Amino acid sequence: MVDEEDLAKVKEAAAREGRSESEYFREAFHLVALRSQRWDEEWDIPALDFGHPVTADEIDRAVSDAVTGTDGDADTRADTE
Known about the structure:
By secondary structure, the chain is mainly α. The chain is built from 4 helices and no strands. The chain has helices at residues 4-17, 21-35, 56-68, 74-80. The longest helix has 15 residues, at 21-35. It is elongated, with a radius of gyration of 23 Å. It starts with a helix and ends with a helix.
């Protein structure tokens, strides 16, 4: 039922991390169950309207600002550096 190479890797990981092999198999089954889950009802995901199409550069800048804790305003960044 299980590829021998994969089983050997699970055994190695279990020994290395002090977990039982069955924990790994339970975790794998759980991940498959989550990945294959489907919902019958529609999701209520709000649509955001920024007044214009959002560019890839704007998304990159927003993510970068969120990671660095800045607000995206170049003047404000210059004052704090």
